[in-house]
Each structure stands twice: as structure tokens, then as C-alpha cells.
Amino acid sequence: PPRSTLFPYTTLFRSCMAAHEPETATDTLLARRQASVSSGVPQGTRIAASHGLGAILTDVDGNDFIDLSSGIGVTTLGHSDPYVVQAIIDQASQLQHTCMHIATYEGYVALCEKLVALFPHGEDTRAVLLNSGSEAVENAIKIARQATGRPSIICFTGAFHGRTLLSMTLTSKVSYKQGCGPFASNVFRLPYPRVREFHDDPDVVAEQALTLLRHAFRDTVSPTDLAAILIEPVLGEGGFYHAPVAYLQGLREICDEHGIALIFDEVQTGFCRTGSWGAYQNLGVTPDLSTWAKAMGGGLPISAVVGKAHVMNAVKTGTLGGTFGGNPIACAAALTTLRRMEELDLCSRAHAVGERLRVRYQQLADAHREVVDVRGLGAMVAIEFCVDGDLTRPATEAVQQILAHCRKNGVLMLSAGVYGNVIRALPALVITDAQLDKALDALHAAADAVLGGSDHE
Ligand code: PMP
Asked: How far apart are CA 300 and CA 332, in angstroms?
């Protein structure tokens, strides 16, 4: 039809749209997201972030949230630490990029020096810088394969190691990888030695899991084909189970006996979160290689593989690296983040935060039979919910409702676990006691609202 015929309808259409115009800045941004961003990117909440300071995240409509997610364990030093902001500005005006393959620059070297000092892996340690946790895991495997001349890897159920092809293969939870195969070969998975602190004896779990591993050498993969055993010392996405010390010690002995590289994925546990710089230092078992990311860059994308020098250097030159790995601005942010973490003694703070979380979680456990466990290491503490306290019936729905209730009251927390029935706290460790108490009050109120008040009332 001619344009003149369409005109009244166009006007009508516009006025109808105006009547349904999004009301808030959040609505507008979410509508733009929906129209431009792939639906493959998870959208855990309807929060549209504007800015952050310390432990507070503010949305585009000016609502504040006490942020117990830290962007999945990244802003451990808090949002926009002023020293980190300044370091980024200074570095951006001096040198934004030159690839380390082309020209050596001080920030990369200084950060590796720092990592090697923080995370000694024996007599002599080396590091390589990359961009993400997934990339660190991929590179740790490449290093282990070259160092051992072997192809195979053992990993664990409940594990999260990333979303690139190999790291996704190593990731356990089906919803992260469904339809993305074929996956990488030579990857074998064993049950993670899960300890529910309310129910299990860690020594018994460790012994059973070590027996299973020795059995796997008979019926699943020969130890002489194994390049690496890869484990998170505390399962992050998998629900904050921490491996029994006896199990990690057993792994260390088995790896030494068979010449297998022991790799700890510390992407989520690293940098003060568990009360020490690395969880492995808490647990007293040193791996051959370890992977680090998240909190290291204070919010900028940077990661690392750290390891024994003879393993890290048993690789062909050219097989590690990348255009952006250890970008100068990310290095400057990381160096300042680590210095600030030291100055503020965030390792000690993690213990205090963890204690506070445990006390309040325990109160929830006393009040609600749905709480089946409280567990974790340092500030990495989680609380698990099952229907009627029956361990075979994860309370996924209730946990989602509790988290939604918390958000309505200005508190942002995350779920975890294969069934999403665990609530985990990853607060900035600069969070004040008052902020943390307020957040935990909101969690208590949410649990009461969803689970129907205290069982003892
Ligand atoms: N390993 C662990 C233990 C993680 O928690 C994550 C991220 N949640 C990764 C690896 C992957 O890191 P990224 O998302 O930076 O690739």
C-alpha cells in the first residue's frame, strides 16, 4: 500500500507502544539486552548494574545491593578500590598494550615475581599470564602433557573448570555443556570426595575415594597414560565441598609414585578467599601446577598458571602465551590489588567473615530442618537445603525463592551445586561487619518467609 495509507496505522502502533513503554532504567536495559545479546549468556537476576563501591553494587535505578556475589568471586578487594582505579588510569596513559612475545614489559615480570613469591611450588617456581580461568586451565593441561609426554587427565564430578572446549570437557555439570560436544578426548571423571560436615567423616570419605582412584588405575585408565589429576581444593560452582586433607595428601603420594602432575584449580579459591593466599596453603599439600584468576585482577581479566619450574619449563617455546595474556593494564590492576590485599590483611579478614557466616548459617540450621549442611573453608562458606531435610531431595525451588526474596531486600547472593540447592557467599572481604550482618538478617528473613518460619516456633 502507498505510504499515505500506512501512516495512521504507524501512528497508532507508536502510541500503543508508548503505552507499554518500559518504566524503569532497568527495564530499558534488559529490553536492549534481550534484543541484542545472545540468550546463551546466563541471566541470573534482573539486576542492571550501574556502579559499585566496596561491598555495594548499585543498579541503574539507584537501588543498592549488598553484594555477596562479587561478580562470582572477583571483587574480593571490593568494587572500585581507589588505588586500583588510579593504577589502571596511570598504566592506561603510559602503555596499554604490547604483546609479551614482542617486547618485555615490567608489569608482566613484576606480577610473575609476585605470584611466584606468594605461591611457592617447591624450590623454584615459574608463572605464565593469561586472560581467564578457562584459559589458565587449558594451559595447565598443555604444560602437564608436554612435561609428562602423556595424554590423559583425571577430573571430578561437580567440577567447574571453564567453557572453552577442553575446560568445558573438564567441567562436570551438564547444563553448562549440553549440546556442545564432541568433547576433548582422554578425560576421565571420578566422584569428588564430598564431605557434608553435618553428616560425613572426612577420613572415611578420603579412604573410600583413594580406593576408588586406585581401582580406576585398573579399570579406567593406566597411571602411565596420565598427564595430570586436576582438582579444585574447594569445589566452587559445585557447592563449596572441600576435599579432605587426607585425600589431597593421598593424591600427592599417588602422583609422585606414578609421575603424574597434580594440578589444583584455585580460580575461585585463590587470593585470601579461604583465609590464605591459596587454599593449598591452608590444606598443606603443594601441587605441581595451579591455576589462578578471578580476584587477582581486581575486576580486570587476567589469569595465571603457576608451577614447579622444571614442569613449567618443560614446554616448547611458542606453545604458551597469547596476544593479550598479561596485558599491561591488567597487570597494573593485579599488582595493586595484591598489594592492597596484603595491606588490608584480607587473609585474616576472611577467617573473621567465615566465622560470622558460620554462626548465622548454624542458626538457620537450628531453625529449619531443610538445612542439611553448613560447610566451607575460610570465608568460602555455604549452606545446603533439602526438602524435609531428606538428602536425596535437593530444595532447588526453595533456594531460588530465598535468593529472590533476598534481592527484593537489597542483598545479592548466588546459588551453587549441581542441583542449585546450595547458597554460597562470596562477599568482598572489605565488607564491614554491619553490612554483612544486614545481609545475613535479610537471608534469615527470606528463609523464614519461604520455609515457613522457624521449626522451633
Ligand atoms: N575454574 C574454576 C574453579 C572456576 O570457578 C571458574 C569460573 N567460575 C573457572 C575455572 C573458569 O573461569 P573463567 O570464567 O574466567 O573462564
From this structure: 10
Instruction: Take atom 1 of ligand 1 and give the residue whose Cα is closest.
Output: 161
Give the ligand 1 atom nearest the CA of 301: 15
What is the tens place of the pLDDT at every residue in 322-381?
999 999 999 999 999 999 999 999 999 999 999 999 999 999 999 999 999 999 999 999
As a whole number, mean pLDDT of residues 410-427 equals 97
Query: Residues 6 or more apart from 340 whose CB is under 8 A from it?
Result: 77, 81, 83, 84, 298
Task: Find cell 531443610 and name the residue.
Answer: 370
Compute the distance between CA of residue 419 and CA of residue 428 in angstroms, rounded to an integer.
25
Task: Note the maximum CA span of the chain.
Answer: 84
Mind giving me the DSSP string for 111-178? HHHHHHHHS--SSSEEEEEESSHHHHHHHHHHHHHHHHT--EEEEETT----SSHHHHHH---GGGTT
Q: What is the distance of C-alpha 38 from the center of its chain?
A: 22
Dig out the grid coordinates for 77 from the structure.
578487594
- Is the minimum distance from the CB of 137 to ligand 1 under 6 angstroms? yes
Ligand 1 pocket, residue 361 CB under 6 Å: no
